């Protein structure tokens, strides 16, 4: 009944949003005498904030049409090169890039938000690389007949995607960058490909704010996952998709529950952001207000993930610590990360990351004991929070150049 209750609430809030939006337009109409006095404008601005806060947001488009390189604008081509039930492989390239440019597989998180959350990451890396990205599907849109999707399937998808990138690059080894949660399956896929001496093994793997070993500097998120038995998660956060979606009957961890968790972690900050939006609108600063709206348009666009993937991730990554303990398995095969001998590793962490604590990603370098020191690098982004290491000014100006330099050095 949890999902059905949410659907009722969502429909009601959509009505509230529509009413607030219409009321705002009426208040601002030149034919309305109240539009010419202060209280009319302030009320309209408050209604604008309410309309935005209660609206429902679907999957956004990437919308990357051009990229600027050395002061010159280049058109960007977006294409889907692999289409699968639980996720597509998209490719972005601009007209100024040569065929010999590095090919980078950007692994987006399957943790509530759509891959478009990494729009800024794609745009920045497009300056120097042909960028591929995992565009994961919203589980509630995947029919039951397509089967399940768990952590093993996720790793299989990454291996197949890497092979596709290699083929499109005429055999050149691809590069891979994982943001947050997918650092674990990307690390595992890299280990498996190294074990098998596969030509698709990435030349470099960059892991950003990833929970490789959550025993290092555990955060509130880590404590939440570690302090409750797996059955608590199964009973408390898993729901069945209702009949009005293509994935009706599928067991999922709903996006709306994930968003509630995200928002509750920093509720005061989110409330202040909306108050600042109101102040910007009242002051006539439309640009600042629009920037806040754009952020929340993306932030509140969430999707469901399959129950089996979520529960397996919680158990293996946060409770059993299978990767650092050497017990992580993929389809019955133990994943031996010490066999990573031919893929250079870059671990990036944010100084103020409140989701993946300092040392959790760096652990990947320590665990790869047979990898030469020259193929390892660690970078701590000073002053950056979790999102700042892959988006925003610190990402563009400080973190991305480190990634580009690493790829160039080990390509």
Name the descriptors.
single chain; three-stranded antiparallel sheet; 14 strands
Note down, in words, how this protein is organized.
The chain has helices at residues 2-28, 38-54, 119-125, 151-168, 183-195, 220-226, 230-236, 255-265, 267-282, 286-299, 307-319, 322-325, 363-367, 393-410, and strands spanning 66-69, 72-82, 87-94, 103-107, 130-136, 175-179, 204-208, 239-240, 251-253, 305-306, 329-330, 333-334, 344-350, 376-381. By secondary structure, it is α/β, with parallel strands linked by helices. The strands form three sheets. Strands 1-2-3-5-4-6-7-13-14 form a nine-stranded mixed beta sheet, sandwiched between helices. Strand 13 (344-350), helix 13 (363-367) and strand 14 form a beta-alpha-beta unit. The mean pLDDT is 87.
How are the elements arranged and paired?
Blueprint: H1 2-28, H2 38-54, E1 66-69, E2 72-82, E3 87-94, E4 103-107, H3 119-125, E5 130-136, H4 151-168, E6 175-179, H5 183-195, E7 204-208, H6 220-226, H7 230-236, E8 239-240, E9 251-253, H8 255-265, H9 267-282, H10 286-299, E10 305-306, H11 307-319, H12 322-325, E11 329-330, E12 333-334, E13 344-350, H13 363-367, E14 376-381, H14 393-410
Parallel strand pairs: 4-5, 4-6, 6-7, 7-13, 13-14
Antiparallel strand pairs: 1-2, 2-3, 3-5, 8-9, 9-10, 11-12
Helix pairs in contact: 1-2, 2-9, 3-14, 4-5, 9-10
């Amino acid at each position: 009944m949890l999902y059905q209750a949410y659907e009722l609430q969502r429909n009601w809030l959509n009505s509230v949003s529509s009413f607030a939006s219409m009321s705002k337009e009426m208040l601002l109409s030149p034919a309305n005498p109240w539009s010419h006095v202060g209280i009319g404008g302030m009320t309209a601005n408050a209604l604008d904030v309410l309309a935005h806060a209660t609206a429902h947001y679907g999957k956004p488009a990437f919308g990357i049409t051009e990229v600027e390189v050395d002061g010159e604008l280049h058109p960007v081509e977006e294409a889907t090169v692999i289409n699968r039930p639980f996720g597509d492989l998209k490719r972005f390239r601009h007209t100024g890039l040569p065929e010999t440019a590095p090919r980078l597989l950007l692994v987006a998180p399957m943790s509530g938000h759509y891959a478009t959350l990494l729009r800024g990451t794609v745009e920045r890396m497009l300056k120097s690389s042909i960028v591929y990205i995992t565009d994961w599907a919203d589980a509630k849109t995947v029919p039951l007949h397509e089967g399940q999707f768990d952590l093993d399937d996720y790793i299989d998808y990454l291996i197949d995607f890497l092979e596709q990138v290699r083929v499109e690059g005429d055999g050149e080894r691809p590069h891979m960058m994982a943001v947050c949660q997918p650092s674990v399956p990307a690390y595992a896929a890299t280990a498996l490909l190294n074990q098998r001496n596969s030509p698709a093994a990435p030349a470099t793997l960059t892991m950003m704010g990833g929970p490789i070993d959550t025993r290092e500097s555990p955060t509130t998120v880590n404590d939440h996952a570690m302090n409750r038995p797996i059955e608590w998660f199964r009973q408390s956060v898993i729901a069945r998709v209702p009949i009005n979606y293509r994935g009706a009957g599928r067991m999922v961890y709903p996006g709306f529950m994930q968003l509630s968790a995200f928002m509750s972690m920093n509720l005061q900050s989110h409330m202040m952001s909306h108050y600042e939006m109101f102040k910007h609108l009242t002051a006539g600063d439309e640009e600042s207000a629009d920037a806040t709206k754009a952020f929340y348009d993306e932030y509140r666009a969430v999707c469901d993930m399959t129950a089996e993937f979520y529960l397996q991730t919680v158990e293996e990554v946060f409770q059993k610590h299978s990767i650092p303990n050497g017990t992580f398995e993929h389809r019955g095969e133990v994943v031996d990360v010490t066999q990573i001998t031919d893929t250079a590793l870059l671990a990036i962490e944010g100084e103020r990351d409140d989701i993946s604590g300092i040392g959790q990603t760096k652990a990947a370098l320590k665990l790869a004991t047979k990898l030469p020191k020259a193929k390892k690098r660690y970078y701590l982004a000073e002053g950056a929070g979790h999102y700042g290491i892959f988006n925003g000014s610190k990402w563009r100006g400080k973190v991305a150049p480190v990634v580009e330099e690493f790829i160039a050095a080990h390509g």
